[in-house]
Structure formats: C-alpha cells, structure tokens
Design goal:
single chain, mainly beta, two-stranded antiparallel sheet, 5 strands
C-alpha cells in the first residue's frame, strides 16, 4: 500500500500528475473544485482545478 495517497479523495483521472494510478486516489492533501459556468446545473460544469496534466500519461498530447 502506498502511503502517498489521500483516501478521502477518490480519483480515476489517470493522466493527472496527482493520481495514484494503482489505487485510484489523489496524492494531494486537498483539492480545489471550481466551475467554468456562472450557474452550474450539471456535473459536467464542475472542474477539479487541482488537475495537472501528466504528459507522459497522455498519448494524444504533444
């Protein structure tokens, strides 16, 4: 078991640098959740603003 995970934050976004890919948890102590909408009404309108792209995990990224 990796002690470098936050068991309170589940995450399956494999191409985020903060994701523990073996256990599907976030490595951060806390995350920032925000929105790109003025009045979000669907979960697609909500964003994890702590996301950092891991270019090595993204085959379509240049």
């Amino acid at each position: 078991m990796d002690s470098n995970v936050n068991r309170s934050i589940h995450c399956t976004v494999k191409n985020c640098v903060h994701n523990n890919k073996e256990q599907n948890y976030c490595k951060l102590d806390s995350i920032k959740v925000g929105t790109h909408e003025s009045n979000p009404t669907e979960k697609q309108c909500v964003d994890c603003e702590s996301f950092v792209l891991n270019n090595r995990g993204c085959s379509s990224c240049s």
